[in-house]
Amino acid sequence: MHLTLEFGGGLELLCQSVKIHNVEVDSPAGDEKLTMKDLLSWVRSNLIKERPEMFMKGDSVRPGVLVLVNDCDWELSGQLDTTLEEKDVIVFISTLHGG
Amino acid sequence: MEESEATTKIPRSRQCCICKDRRAALKRPKTLEQICRECFYAAFEEEIHKVIVDNQLFKPGERVAVGASGGKDSTVLAYVMSELNRRHQYGLELFLLSVDEGITGYRDDSLETVKRNEIQYGLPLKIVSYKDLYGWSMDEIVKAIGLKNNCTFCGVFRRQALDRGAALLEVDKLVTGHNADDIAETVLLNILRGDIARLGRCTSITTGEDGKIPRCKPFKYTYEKEIVIYPYTYAYFKKLDYFSTECIYSPNAYRGFAREFIKDLERKWCKACVLLEGLNRGLPKLGIGRTRGRNGQQRDVPQTNGGMKNMESKQRGTLDF
Predict the structure, then answer these.
(1) pLDDT(B307) > 60
(2) CA–CA separation, B204 vs B210, rounded Å?
């Protein structure tokens, strides 16, 4: 499945300062749909190059990281249970930076 | 992927609870309202306008400096202040005031952002530097003192530098981008430090009224999540330009712990809701016993779609001041 991932608010520093990643992520075996939970573990093992604790805590994002799925707050789509579709755009923004 | 689903982006959220038309794009942390992008801008900006009016922060004709670091809070503040000043005819003369601490690879880059903001918003910019004011840059101070206590120097110097910059600009007031989350952290820090005097005044919207130049915080009631999301949801109109790198000298700053602690607290679930959810789903033992790990890894919350939504609506952490 083709997805566009964008990292902002400093999170890009964890993936070699690249903000936008166009990626191919395999759906889980069988009829299972790809969820945000699957995507997060994929991101953690494939994109995050350093300090994964700045991005994740447990199996979700670290508190203070905002997630938008197609410009929509993931708190409205079920957070970890949000199912993803072809060409979805997922944005991760850290709020934990100075201002 | 099923073909029928791949053709269009089907909205996966409900409609906006204000306009009842467009689809919701954001859950407001303060009210838990589900709100669309357009209603969000309007509500976000008008709430700040209301704070300014209700607290009589400014008088017509005043000269006001916006403390601008190039970071998210001050960049959004400078933008919103110039918008509201125009829209509601506050009659203010606005300036950007930045402090150059002299931190190579951090402040020099963020000052470039402020310089772009000067052009984008058409606000005159004044930069005051530690080197000019005190004869020492932060780079030199860190060389002398190391990475312990360096933030104390920086904090004390910045406070005074802002006052001196504001005096040079001959402004009547200085506004800063401190938001509701910052203030919650400050409350906690002042309790932990036992600083009763600061604890008393750290939540005031205006401070230093007895001194020369009062400071105020128009974002006192504004949640950080909304400040961060505001420029992002604006992306299709005009992306606000801000700088988002942690200071290279403050990885051990005490505030970070308070910040994480509060962010963790906000995620805790209401116990009654967990128990009820268990009863309703035929899993009465759901909230009984200790299933959550020390670092909150495994939650005693059902991981299903509906269940999560239910829980979240009862989320704690709506801190009010």
Answers:
(1) no
(2) 14
What are the tokens at B277? 């959810």
Which of B88, B49, B94, B76 has the alpha carbon at shortest distance from B242?
B76
B239 touches chain A (CB under 8 A): no
Reduce the DSSP state of residue A69 to 3 states and report it.
strand
Determine contact, residues B205/B279, Cβ cutoff 8 Å.
no
Segment (H or E) for B128: strand B125-129
* Structure letter (DSSP) for residue B121: H
The CATH fold of domain B48-261: Rossmann fold (3.40.50)
Cβ(A55)–Cβ(A14) under 8 Å? Answer: yes
Who among A10, A72, A80 is closest to B303 (CB)?
Answer: A80
Boundaries of every domain in chain B: 48-261, 269-312
Looking at residue B49, its amino acid is: H
- CB-based contact A85 B305, cutoff 8 Å: no
B305 and A CB contact within 8 Å: yes
Mean pLDDT of B228-234: 78
Chain segment B179-200, per-residue pLDDT in tens:
999 999 999 999 998 999 999 8
CATH domain A2-94 topology: Ubiquitin-like (UB roll) (3.10.20)
Contacts of B31 (CB under 8 A, 6+ apart): none
Residue B244 has pLDDT above 60, yes or no: yes
Q: Residue count of chain B, please give it.
A: 321
CA-based diameter of chain A, in Å? 46
Is the CB of residue B202 less than 8 Å from the CB of residue B190? Answer: yes
Which pLDDT value is given to residue B240? 64
Of the candidates B107, B51, B84, the residue with the CA atom closest to the CA atom of residue B249 = B107
Nearest to A99 by CA among B27, B179, B303, B123: B179
Max distance between CA atoms of chain B, in angstroms, equals: 70
Q: Does B255 touch chain A (CB under 8 A)?
A: no
To the question of whether residue B167 is assigned a binding role by annotation, the answer is no
Q: Where are the domains of chain A?
A: 2-94
Which residue type is seen at B97?
Answer: L
Please, what is the angle between helix B224-233 and helix B37-54, to 10°? Answer: 130
d(CA B80, CA B74): 10
| pLDDT < 70 regions, chain A | 31, 97-99
Answer yes or no: are the C-beta atoms of B274 and B300 closer than 8 Å: yes
Interface contact B245-A80, CB threshold 8 A: no
Parallel/antiparallel/unpaired status of strands B173-175 and B215-216? parallel
| Residue A58 to residue B293: CA distance in whole angstroms | 9
